[in-house]
């Protein structure tokens, strides 16, 4: 029990999700070339931020660099890019598999 940090279940998952969300905001800022510090989990990547199909590819490549892993794009759907939160869900699940 002394090896566990936090309360009970999933401290690593919460940490991973925070790290992934931070990486998404950082990568989006680089791809869109603007400051996105105030982005919220429900911010729409296409509707609110103006991400386009070219930006999606750039975003994925940048996230792979930041997070140090590769993502299987065959399992990726456009709905995964609806919001910061939906993209974080996909990336956390992809890292767990």
Q: Would you spell out the secondary-structure blueprint of this structure?
A:
Blueprint (H helix, E strand, L loop, with lengths): L10 H22 L20 H15 L16 H13 L1
Helix pairs in contact: 1-2, 1-3
How would you describe this protein?
- Helix 1 packs across helix 2.
- Helix content is 52%, strand content 0%.
- The N terminus is likely disordered.
- It has one domain: ACP-like (Non-ribosomal Peptide Synthetase Peptidyl Carrier Protein, Chain A, Orthogonal Bundle), CATH 1.10.1200.10.
- The two termini are 26 Å apart.
- The chain contains three helices and no strands.
- The chain is globular and about 30 Å long.
- The chain is mainly α.
């Amino acid at each position: 029990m002394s090896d566990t940090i936090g309360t009970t279940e999933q401290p690593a998952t919460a940490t991973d999700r925070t790290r992934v969300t931070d990486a998404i905001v950082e990568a989006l800022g680089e791809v869109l070339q603007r400051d996105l510090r105030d982005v919220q989990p429900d911010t729409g990547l296409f509707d609110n931020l103006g991400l386009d199909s070219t930006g999606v590819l750039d975003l994925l490549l940048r996230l792979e660099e930041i997070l140090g892993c590769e993502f299987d794009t065959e399992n990726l759907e456009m709905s995964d890019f609806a919001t910061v939160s939906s993209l974080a869900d996909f990336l956390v699940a992809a890292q767990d598999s």
